[in-house]
Amino acid sequence: MNNLNKIVPGLLLIALLPLPYFYYQLLRIVVTVVASIYAYKFYEDNQMAKVIIFGIIAIIWNPIFPIYMDKSVWMILDIVGATVFFFGGPDD
Question: What contacts 29, CB < 8 A, 6 or more positions away?
Fold first, then answer.
């Protein structure tokens, strides 16, 4: 299993805690970059369902045009995102 498949879910689960806003800004950058890389890798492997899933993750967490939601919604998304990264990321 790819180390990012462990690190990113951990970062997303840590986001469930009450942390300074800076952490969430940094998390947006990390999740967007990694999700974009995964989407591209899956595109090269012609796995379009995973391209769409990681593309949506990159859009939701993007730091350039942020989507603002309540903390309760973000908590659900963080859990779903952590699960997707842990089980759906590339195997290499």
Answer: 63
* Threshold 0.90, pTM exceeds: yes
Residue partners of 11: CB distance under 8 A and separation at least 6 = 27, 30, 31
pLDDT in tens, 21-50: 999 999 999 999 999 999 999 999 999 999
The three state secondary structure string of the chain is CCCHHHHHHHHHHHCCCCCCHHHHHHHHHHHHHHHHHHHHHHHHCCCHHHHHHHHHHHHHHCCCCCCCCCHHHHHHHHHHHHHHHHHHCCCC
